[in-house]
Fold this protein.
Amino acid sequence: MPIVPGEIAFAENGVPASPAYGDIYHSADGGLRQARSVFLQGSDLPNAWQGTERFVILETGFGLGLNFLATWQAWREHPGCCARLHFISVEKHPLTKDTLARCHAAWPELAPLAAMLREQWPLLVAGYHRLSFDEGRVQLTLIFDDAEAALKQLDAKADAIYLDGFSPAKNPDIWSPALLAQLRHLSRPGARLATWCVAGKVRQALQEAGFSIERKPGFGHKKERLEAQFTHASRLTPHALPKNAAIIGAGIAGSSLAHALCGRGWQVTLIERHTAPAMGASGNPAGVVRPQLALDDSFNGRLSRQAFLHTVKLISSHASRLTPPLQGAFRLARQNCSTGAEHAPRIPRLAPSHVFDGVLQLARDETNATHMQAMLEAHRYPAGFAHWVSQEEASELAGVAVAAAGIHFPGGGWISGPRVCAALLAQCGASLTRRFAHTATRLEQTADGWRVWENEPAQVAPWGEFRRSQNGTLLAETSTVILAGAHEAAAFANLPLTPVRGQITALPDGCLPGLSIPVTREGYVLPTVHGIGNIGASFGFDDDPAPRESDQQANQARLASLLQLPPALDVRTLAARVSFRAATPDRLPFAGAIADANAGIRPETPLAGVGRQPGLYALTGLGARGLVWGPFLAKALAARLDNESWQLPRDLWQAIDPARFLLREARRGKRS
């Protein structure tokens, strides 16, 4: 859905109003006082969250953010508040950062909090945006979407609900019976609801949704307001997992997942057959980070867009301070360029793990250029996210003459997988146990969880002796196992994963002077990163791990398709690296609980009803988009393991569910 920013016009009394809806954003008697009187008092806050571990608030209509700011301020000022506050708010027409600043100036007592909110204010792009404050103890999830559509896909249980849209006469959609009926599925037993609206249809819809309602004295000129409480008992109690896990695979998915779980207080054992993280498909010196747009806003396009925005933010906030050296993932032979000079690039010990200075995606031809421009027009992306540039403009951005016009992603860039993985793991501290140079070969289910075995005795165990038996070496005994390797995950679960061979070609420093940002088309070229540039990547389905001259020549052709004046290269003298990505049949990843193939899946079984293997999960099948998808999906899956599923809408969780292909097979069998 294209996002149309909200507009502000100030009424004669100075109250901000919406010209589109012909209504004001808050009471003329005071917006902050209204927030405290109607919503906090109406939800019995701060009393309701006293002594709780987690408190979740759901709001319809973020508007100026006043309710969030007032709630955050109360959380800070009252002792004994919840350990973690989650505020989820839906907004169809979000305001720009500058407009928010103009409006926030009316409440100087909120200035420090309002400034922190605006500092993290996201690009106005449809979907979920997560903002983190007070060292992660306060989380704001903004959903830029139509409220009714968003609530249908939201997977959350709220302890308090703020209903704060424009009036039913001005914006009936946000008070519709269908929207209010969704609150039945989004409320915990005893959840409190507050609103200034007392319209009869709203009261009736809330009662039908399971709320007992009570009229209370209103605020300011309004005679009454509503307080309500969800009276239905819960049928399901979320199962709290013991906070320990074994992760198999230390690439970008496994390392990001270890970091996310350790940050939530889990004890994690990370098992990796190599001696260091990111030695497989994540081990290239650097890789491109940009979204994959789609005209029809398919699952792939929506997931790519959301993952891109979150991953850039995540890596920027967590990996910027730590830049550990590469650990042998990519070794270069002595090489030369068209000048004939020999190069043996020295990789500095301290160098950036990422740079987000922009990415270009060039059009393949005129037909493709028309399609790309149609995508931009259909979704009306803000220029800070994606915009069209001419060939001349693209060349100026790249620092070299490029071969075509295309899309510029200002927030894109490159990530060094080995450095980012090492940086994330370095932040895990004592919560992380590394089991490197060990290959998990077997899973054993126990009454309390899982044992992970290596059948062959370990040759190197710098952290001490493992438990050994006739069954092999016990690498971990834990409640939860997450398969985060590439195609090797198929050895432990029925997951249709195909290894895809990719070869990149290394370009020593000096081959591409002036190139400043990645340029992509049907391949890519990266500027010099840590003394190395690279072009790639090939795409094949054989299992040959050795570099091939034919793939080197194909990469040289890719370079020629990207730049107007590509350097003359002798590919026989250039180093190469081969790795294997894991692809799924629908090119969407696997993230979630693994199905129990023996549970008797029937064609009529809903995806949520498919039996699962307790404590067994997957985060794999990332294909060529591991650097974009991996960090975000790791954080989303870690949150879901903590019963916080609102990182993604329900339909996107279903689109990446590891059980989806087993269910499709059952349904195809019925049709045949």
Summary: Confidence is low (pLDDT under 50) at residues 321-349, 457-466.
